[in-house]
Amino acid sequence: MARHLEITAAIGTKVYFCDAASPWQRGSNENANGLLRQYFPKSTDLSVHAPRDLARVESELNGRPRLTLGDRTPTELFNALLTSASIQTLQ
């Protein structure tokens, strides 16, 4: 995010950074980390895993319904947003 000022100027949106050592400010990120830890314990060297193994985990996580997405999967929501003619919110 070293170029966050350029991104802000280009697309007209603000970029926010969490305070250091404040995981409660990064809820979605911390949740994703927890899900990934079910497959890869902390400090796992991902280079020892084949790309197909990483893709399998990606597929499983993206196919898992999320309460915050109204029990939809990330894949379902992403596809719906891609095929929508209008801008939608996550609600």
UniProtKB/TrEMBL annotation:
Residues 1-82 form the Integrase catalytic domain. It comes from the Bacteria. Belongs to the transposase IS30 family. Required for the transposition of the insertion element. This is Integrase catalytic domain-containing protein.
